[in-house]
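A reminder before we start the practical. When you read a complex entry, don't treat the lines as separate problems. The point of joint prediction is that each chain is placed relative to the others, so the output describes one connected object in space. Small molecules and nucleic acid strands, if listed, are placed in the same frame. In the example below there are four entries. Take a minute to note the order of the lines before looking further.
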Amino acid sequence: MALTRAKKAEAPKKRSRIQTENRAAIALAALDVFSTDGYRGATIDRIAERAGMSKTNLLYYYPSKEDIYRQVIEQTVEAWLEPFAAIDPDGDPIEELRRYITIKLTMSDASPEASRLFANEVQRGAPLVLEFLQTRLKALVDEKAGVIRRWIDAGKIAPVDPYHLIFTIWATTQHYADFDVQVNAILGKQTKRPGFNDQVAHAVLSILLNGIKPRA
Amino acid sequence: MALTRAKKAEAPKKRSRIQTENRAAIALAALDVFSTDGYRGATIDRIAERAGMSKTNLLYYYPSKEDIYRQVIEQTVEAWLEPFAAIDPDGDPIEELRRYITIKLTMSDASPEASRLFANEVQRGAPLVLEFLQTRLKALVDEKAGVIRRWIDAGKIAPVDPYHLIFTIWATTQHYADFDVQVNAILGKQTKRPGFNDQVAHAVLSILLNGIKPRA
DNA sequence: CCAAAACTTGACTAAGTGGTCAAAATTGAA
DNA sequence: TTCAATTTTGACCACTTAGTCAAGTTTTGG
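Here is the predicted structure of the whole assembly.
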């Protein structure tokens, strides 16, 4: 579950109600602050303020800034991996990809902070998650690339490089979270209208599924 | 040229050789540091060190950290806009898009720092370039979206939402710069091989032009 | 060659920053 | 109720950071 193995087998910590509440509040506030200011730019003070407690109290729950960051990013990565792992080799390929893309777009819309946090981490050179990327993520991507290759061999989808297809899906779906300020600036208030998210999904799916060239 | 209008009509400053050299060295170093550490995370000291001069000397050329940042990001945005503006309404649509995508991928490869710098700025909420996004960039995108719409009406490309097409192109082309650590982690050393960039271009173009669904 | 302008530097300041510590306030089980 | 464990706090420390300043050194035009 954890990105890195726990150093020591921690005793079976049962958390009090206050522990649970405060740790959750901290994680939420930290996601917010880290995702906009980056790791170095974020301050414990601001996280504490947003979580509604003193800095000293926050440090009672998480012993250091890096600990908070680690917690939040692990949380994010796990949530982000799940729908990818759920791609079913035996499902209908187009339907599976459509579902995955839709879920990712929904997640981007629901929690753009998480998306930005991860983007930030990778852009910094992934000091914390590099090992995870090289091991667990790579293995999972290799596996799914194999699935896609088999779909291609069966003639069920067009012959495209599986890895770059995965990257393209990640790129497009995350773009709407990571660059939402830019998207808003260009599209104006229509991005706030209720159906907008569906419109994005439809447009992206149309491009990725059918391409730009006119079909005969 | 500038993102924001100059406050006062500056006297016709002719720059000495030393001015020119040092300002260029600073801009280069700043791009490097800002793009990996973010605005808040970057320090004048590190920029100065990388530029090979003392902090005090650097502040002789740029009066503040924000001034350096502003300079570098304006530079970046201008370079980034040029090939987009160059999309020719009278050219062959597929060829124009292919060319634009290829150029953007080449730029991402040549200067991933610039790409990351801009991504970082937008992810922070675009404090410096927001106005630019809402005015000049929006106008330019509106114009190019009109071009694409006319191509669609003429049946020369498939009917996709022009704005989302533009976003999709930006997303995919920037992904290889902004997430290159992740790409490297997953694809391994093959990303260093000479032909890799062409392979990326080919794969991305294939997906965007033809889509994933098998053509009859 | 020389003085003025341009350039460079080290010492310094004021405002944060992450983190410690001991003491106080609160909670909860017996 | 009681008292030990848990939670919360303010004072504090060592360090980093953006930016100033005055005093130097180098460059350049006459």
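Discuss with your neighbour: The longest helix of chain B spans residues 17-41. What might explain this?
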